[in-house]
Amino acid sequence: MSTAALPWGRAWRWARRAWDRAAIYLPVILMGVMALGTYWLASNTPSLLGGPENRRPPSHEPDYFMRNFSVKTFEPGGRLKSEVFGTEARHYPDTDTLEIDRARILSYDESGALTVATARRAISNGDGSEAQLIGDAVVTRTPPPGTDAPRMEFRGEFLHAFLNTEKVRSHKPVTLIRGNDRFTADTLEYDNLDRVMDLRGRVRGTLMPQPAP
To answer: Which of 83, 107, 122, 176 could form an S-S bond across to 115 if both were Cys, CB 3.0 to 4.6 Å?
Structure first.
């Protein structure tokens, strides 16, 4: 009987040593199994926040509204840069534009000149540097105090004002009033910094005589 029990004793001791060795790596094996299970769940379970395949491109629907509002923008140094007024505004996230009813936009440059843009409706970009003025559009630029530069005024059904670069464009008929002079044209390109005015189409102008020095 003792001779028959010997192989079983060796087998038991071998199994015991094998189990002890396997037990050392058991936590690592369990962690690997859990990681694989987590990866499988993440790959096959729809995300509550929506994965890349479930994300939809932003639609042209307003994500917030403002009514009877006033918004001011300041330079990093604290100088007032611009003010925007309107009866209602709608922000569209797909284009990052603000559509404003009864818009009035004031822009102040470092020299002290004031630019005022008004229209029945305006579409402004995200940082307020551009404004498309639609319906009874008027842009006026009052020169800095103490200068002899004339006051400028643009009128039309559509004006595209670039407030930072001091440009005004329009592909529709416009009226330009510069001091006492008056011009009309079918299209307009005006650059105040370069002092360049490009009037095209049926251009007409009335130049008033300057007073004698």
So the answer is: 107
